[in-house]
Amino acid sequence: MAIAVFFAEGYEEIEALTVVDLTRRAGIETWMVSITEEKKVTGSHGIEVSMDKTLAEVDFNEVDMIVLPGGMPGTLNLEACEPLMEKVKEFDKAGKYISAICAAPTVFGHLGLLEGKKACCYPGMEDGLENAEVTYNSTAVAEHILTSRGMGTAIDFGLQIIAAFQGSDAAEDMAKKIVYK
Question: Residue 120 catalytic?
Answer without folding.
Answer: no
